[in-house]
Amino acid sequence: MRHFLTTIAFALGLTGFAGSGFAATQYPLTIDNCGQKVTFEKAPAKIVSIGQGMTEILFSLGLADKIAGTAVWVGPVLPQYAEVNSKIPRLADNDPSFESVVGKAPDLVVAEFEWHVGAQGSVGTRQQFSELGINTYVAPTDCVAKVNTDGGDGVRKELFTMDLVYQEIVELSQIFDVRDRGDALIADLKKREADAVASIAAAKAMNLPIVFWFSSREVNGDAYIAGKNSAPAYILKRLGARNVLTTEEEWPMVGWETISQANPAVIVIATMDRRRYAADDPKVKVDFLEKDPVTSQLDAVKNKHFVMMDAQSMNPTIRTIDGIEVLAKGIKSFGLAQ
Amino acid sequence: MGLAAKRRTWWALLALAMAAVILLTFMISLAVSIGEISIPLSTTVKAVSNRLFGTSFELSRIHQGIVWDYRLSRALVAASTGASLALSGVVLQALLRNPLAEPFVLGISAGASTGAVCIMILGLGYGILGLSGGAFLGAVAAFLFVGLLAAGVGGTSERIILCGVAGSQLFNALTSYIVTTSANAEQARGVMFWLLGSMSGVRWPDVYLSGPVAIIGFAVCMAHVRVLDAFIFGTDAAASLGIAVKRAQVVLLGVTAFMTAAVVSIVGSIGFVGLVIPHAARFVVGPSHDRLLPAAALAGAIFMVAADIISRVIIPQQILPIGVVTALFGAPAFALILYRTRRTA
Amino acid sequence: MSIAVDTVTFAAGNSLIVNGVSLTVEKGKVLGLLGPNGSGKSSLLRLICRLRKVKSGVIRLGGSDIASISRSDIARRIALVEQQATTDTQVTVMDVVRLGRTPHRGPLSAWSAHDDAAVSDALARVGMQGRAGQPWQTLSGGERQRVHIARALAQTPSELLLDEPTNHLDIQHQLDILGLVSRLDVTSIVALHDLNLAAMFCDSLAVLQNGEVVAAGPPEEVLTQELIERVFGVRAHVQKSSVHGRCNIQYMAG
């Protein structure tokens, strides 16, 4: 009797599972990705991930064991994945070579930016990989409504929204047949976003002018500031604040006259591990702001309304949500949310 | 006969010189009054007056800072570096008897990048020497190398140019080696971008270097007006006219290297100015160096200030690198000059 | 002696280019310097105006050792016209001739009437006086050479050195220029290839071979059939011309 009941329960459980409606991936799966059709015969077994944002999404989907190598790291990995990450070989802190990627014999290469894997990819073109039988997937955050022909940061024609990241999560979870994890991740991110927005709901009416400073080639020189359709712009829009820039370029080089004119209420300063330019160091950025004859007169500098934000949050990734949280906290702590 | 062959009378030249000086002053005023953001002219005037004459008009401290600390210092540096590059171009074209000679032909910008990269790697730091100091020393080192090499192989014009090519290649290779083998490769690579040429990081301390350099350079060049004229048919012809050729080469090439090294260490390598302005000036006032040098200096100053203004206003809210602007205008101008002076014989 | 060369040697690297050359030129006379290519003519001329330094021997101008004369003094008295001096710059005839005044002008001295006179005189003597404003690039080879000579004359030299001034010229200009040089009252040394022209216009000749003087003296003494065959490797018949009284060399082919 017990045996029979267990079997019935098991059978019911199975049908219950099947009936819950989560869509198992039907292979072969063809995805329209950044202007190319990519076909998967089965879930890929070995991945090389180029781009910290992309890697962190894969970690969040529990796919760490399939990653054979990573590259392009802006800062430290999300702490909850530090351990799994330490077991995965890092091919390069920045651009890996084509051979090092291919040498891992992956069946899928995923890239966060078209300037790594794309028509002018510094690692390789998508055709180079497909000639070797390797599929490529480029994050929709970098190619939807975005023009990357100049090989730089590109120009974004429409405001970035987290929907693009959610699209990426959905597509990746389809490719790897882990749709349930994907949906759970999206739900969690949406909740965090809503909570952060609600925490400073009062500031929405203020329309605060805010600027995101990534870095500068020369400390005294023009700065790389987030453009009007970039991920930081999305953060500002969600929080009811205003980007001081109206250019569509993703990270234009802007002079301090323009930035000072806007007299931002808060200056968001990027922190990162990279030290390509002296201004990569957030301390150097703050030092400049406080010593320069013009910027030292800005309200944000006089009142030290600086928000330190991990540079990875300024990229269109799941960490954009972190960015929303960090900035909301900052605005609140400065007492600007009244 | 055309404009190129027209002889100008003394009075016409004087008038031209005065017009150029007035134009330069106007351009500098323009650079102070317009920029990335628009500041009312009255505010600009008050800001300058406050700092210059100690008046105390009520002004936003931000506008005050922008006009005086950003725009005026940058306009003055643009003018003096433009003049320095143009003068260097004139001297090099005369000494090397090559119309394509320009200030970076002696390996100076290659040396500057090596020097800057060394500072980054050796980490002498921004305390003692700074990136600019390193660039200056590197530029001078490259020039000395090229000079010694040229002296060793016989200092004819063709040989000097070839030595310059060798020097550039060597120092570029050194830079690449240091960059690829250093632990701080990322940092070192960052330095290369800085040398591409930019007026944005300029503040008043840079004026105190570029101004005197341009003035001293101009004075030394003017003192050698006859020498420069005499080189037109080569070193032997110059020597037969009584010129101390070796000493002249050392002094003139030295002052050129000095001016160019100073320019590169402040604003990086800005191309086309040293190549095109001498030809443009020659086109207007003729090849006699007593007129050519002042004309080139003024034209170079005006051109650079104009290029800086354009680089800031041509795309709203963005800065175009100044090297792009000088090339955009310099290349067609050069083509036009070549066309107008094509040989009729 | 206006120019006196005394046992002068000159070497470039390991090869001896001028080997124990001695010759003299009297004031106001024309010396023709002959010899095959590579015999050291150009180098000798450059030694005489101190563009190169002698290895041994002494060169005297008007009795003074040139090693003791200052560079600018040398330039004020002796002028050199090179074989082919070219430029790409858009200069005019006047610009080029004015250069000749350089040794006489300090860095701060203004252009004087004396300078003007020297320049217009020089232009007149080469027959280019109406062409002062003409661009250099539009001149023919012969005209350019005349302008170079005018530049040398503008230096108001007392000695004039010409290195193969008649190469690339048509016959009319060859005769013009050499006639001009022979009529000038400056002491001249002219390096030439054409033996007949040398005979016509020079007061004395010196023949160089491998850096050594193999014959010197008046043309009729120097230009013998034997010397011409030995030095130039051609057979010729020399006779006195009934037209102008100077030697005339008739070459025999084959």
Describe this structure in words.
The complex is a heterotrimer of chains A (338), B (345) and C (254). By secondary structure, chain A is α/β, with parallel strands linked by helices. Chain A is built from twelve helices and 15 strands. In chain A, strands 10, 11, 12, 13, 14 and 15 form a six-stranded mixed sheet that branches. A five-stranded parallel sheet of chain A has the order 5-4-3-6-7. In chain A, helix 6 packs antiparallel against helix 7, helix 7 runs parallel beside helix 12 and helix 8 packs across helix 12. The termini of chain A are far apart. About 3% of the residues of chain A have low confidence. Chain B is built from 15 helices and no strands. The N and C termini of chain B lie close together (12 Å). In chain B, helix 3 runs antiparallel to helix 14 and helix 4 packs parallel to helix 7. Helices cover 76% and strands 0% of the residues of chain B. Chain B is mainly alpha-helical. In chain C, strands 6-7-8-3-9-10 form a six-stranded mixed sheet, with helices on both faces. Chain C has a four-stranded antiparallel sheet with strand order 2-1-4-5, covered by helices on one side. Chains in contact: A-B, B-C. Chains A and B meet through strand 13 and helix 9 of A and helix 3 and helix 8 of B.
Strand fraction band of chain C?
A: 25-35%
* Mean pLDDT, all residues of chain C: 90
Rg for CA atoms of chain C: 19 Å
Annotation field: number of helices of chain A: 12
SSE series of chain A:
HEEEHEHEHEHEEEHHEEHEEHEHHEH
Helix content of chain A: 25-40%
In spatial order, strands of the major sheet of chain C run: 6-7-8-3-9-10
Class based on secondary structure composition and strand pairing of chain C: alpha/beta
Unreliable parts of chain C: none
Biggest sheet of chain A: strands, sense, closure? 6 strands, mixed
- Low-confidence parts of chain A lasting 5 or more residues at pLDDT below 50? 13-21
Termini separation of chain C (Å)?
42 Å
| Straight-line distance between termini of chain A | 67 Å
What is the overall shape of chain C? globular
Layout of strands and helices, then pairs:
The complex is a heterotrimer of chains A (338), B (345) and C (254).
Chain A: H1 2-19, E1 29-33, E2 36-40, E3 47-50, H2 52-60, E4 67-71, H3 82-86, E5 90-92, H4 98-102, E6 108-111, H5 126-131, E7 135-138, E8 146-147, E9 155-156, H6 162-175, H7 179-199, E10 209-216, E11 223-225, H8 231-238, E12 242-243, E13 253-254, H9 256-262, E14 266-271, H10 282-291, H11 299-302, E15 306-310, H12 319-333
Parallel strand pairs in A: 3-4, 3-6, 4-5, 6-7, 10-12, 10-14, 14-15
Antiparallel strand pairs in A: 1-2, 8-9, 10-11, 11-13
Helix pairs in contact in A: 6-7, 7-12, 8-12
Chain B: H1 10-33, H2 41-53, H3 61-95, H4 108-122, H5 125-128, H6 130-153, H7 157-181, H8 185-194, H9 204-223, H10 225-230, H11 235-240, H12 245-267, H13 273-285, H14 289-313, H15 322-340
Helix pairs in contact in B: 1-3, 1-14, 2-3, 3-9, 3-12, 3-13, 3-14, 4-6, 4-7, 4-8, 6-7, 6-12, 7-8, 9-12, 13-14, 13-15, 14-15
Chain C: E1 3-12, E2 15-25, E3 30-34, H1 41-48, E4 56-61, E5 64-65, H2 71-77, E6 78-81, H3 93-99, H4 113-125, H5 141-154, E7 159-163, H6 171-183, E8 187-191, H7 195-201, E9 204-209, E10 212-217, H8 219-222, H9 225-232, E11 235-240, E12 247-252
Parallel strand pairs in C: 3-8, 3-9, 6-7, 7-8
Antiparallel strand pairs in C: 1-2, 1-4, 4-5, 9-10, 11-12
Helix pairs in contact in C: 3-5, 4-5
